[in-house]
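Q: Hi! First time doing this. I have a protein sequence and I read that you can turn it into a structure. Is that right? Here it is:
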Amino acid sequence: MSPGVVVRPRPVDADLRVRPRRELDITPVFSYENDGGDLAATLRRCVGVGKCRTRDSAGVMCPSFQVTHDEKDSTRGRARVLDEMLNGGVIEDGWRSAEVSFSSWFRRRTAPAGAGTRGTMLLWVDSFGNALNPGPLRAATEVLEEIGFRVIVPPGTQCCGLTWITTGQLGVARRVQRRTLNAIAPQLEEVSAVVGIEPSCTATLRTDLPDLLAGHPAAARLARKTKTFAGTIRDLAPDWDPPELPVETLRQTHCHQHAVMGDQADSWLLERMGVDDTKLGSGCCGLAGNFGFEREHYALSVAAGNGCCCRPCGPPRTRCACWPTASAATPRSDRERTGTRSTWPNWFVTPRPQLSPSR
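A: Yes, that's right. Below is the predicted 3D structure, encoded as structure tokens:
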């Protein structure tokens, strides 16, 4: 008689995931008055039917999913991540979960045997990569440790100051950069290089920071030691054999990287891997930090992005409609603008190359 179903059945609401299994100390900033001030109740407004997953470009939902076709970029996917965080089923430690940030993942991982035989690297943890797109930072860590480097990160949360530089708040930028230098100064004494993944941050550490803090004892040292991911491998581990990857790529170099660091190291690394690489002749995705998000700059931003990243691509190649290398990682601005199937060089160099964008 199927006990528990037909005979002595459980209450109809017994197995509904309605209430979180634990209480988190979260005080929402929004009032959520229509849901009694309960963030969990707000998240349950997503019932999971997946209408946000339509691939019809004529619809309005969900624009990010229409570009990436990745569940994590759909409205449903984001609601589920928050829900799992609240109920503790999959994400066990809230906002500091390794599912959420690179820093949490880094603290919990176990470095492989042999990491440190070639020296120590300070991996620069940029704000966007840490909180929104930790995949490239994870891949860089795994590759550097595979090569034999010990990887460390700055203490606490540090910033290169570019956000304030681009908006003309140079006084704030100096204060932020001075705090950053004071925090990492002891580490600069022991590391062979500071490895930048986000090109805008990397260029700032190389140029803007020493200009704004001329005379600071650590500023020039930081600038000298800052390298791109590919530049680190070329300069400090040229004998390392990367995995072969016989694919075609169409590569865009980020504006800041083109102006400050160059992309010769990226070309060298791709050639070593057997990649059939074609470099775009133009370099601006059009966003330029916050510029492309501002209403008065929208038309100019789109025109610049179309000229660089869209028309040259044509039909998708074997790999990547656009691949901005950007110091061995697609920067947030380029990835937002180019959209489809762009990825990062350090994904390619992992022991098991990641051939799909991942976070």
